[in-house]
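hi got a favour to ask and not much time before my train. below you get a single protein, a line of residues and a line of whole numbers that encode the local backbone shape. could you go over both lines and see whether the tokens make sense for that sequence. a few lines back from you is plenty, here it is:
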Amino acid sequence: MRQHQYLSKFAVTPKLFTGTKLKGIEMKALKKTVVTKPLTAKAVVLQLDKLHTQREQFEVTIQARSNEKLYEICGLIYAQYCSVKDDKKLLKEIVEVMKKHFEDRGQRIQSNSSILGLFVRYVFNGKRQAMHIYTRALQFLLGEGVKPENAATFIVKKGGIDECFKARTPSVAQTSKQDKIK
């Protein structure tokens, strides 16, 4: 059976790949990009106009839903943290369990990591920069006194995670570092 060249490094045939379910997610083969050499500048611009329209549709539909889901997940992390933040004994137990999971994943934890940051890292298990932004955005929500049930809506109204991240006030340590640099 012939394999598509864009799937060849995964050694998966299109028949096996298309329609396969992995952890409840339907897997579909990517469309092959076919570009024919345009004959005129106008033809290129016309194709770019079509791509522009497709990108706008993507932003309004798929990306918007994706961001909403991200805000929902961040709101749920925030709610979990808020539900336990005042119980120091329970927080200590939670941190110990999370530390064990991080060790099992082969990850280290810095001593200056915030507990909210550990919650974010535990859920997202991703890139440091993204986790830093998500944590700081949720810290902004804490500072604003946002109720857990309103967290996702607050993030949307504020303009997204990045806007919440930008809106936070710098810590005293950050401010003193900035003063030293000047």
Remarks:
- Residues 136 and 165 are 6 Å apart (CA to CA).
- The first helix runs from residue 14 to 17.
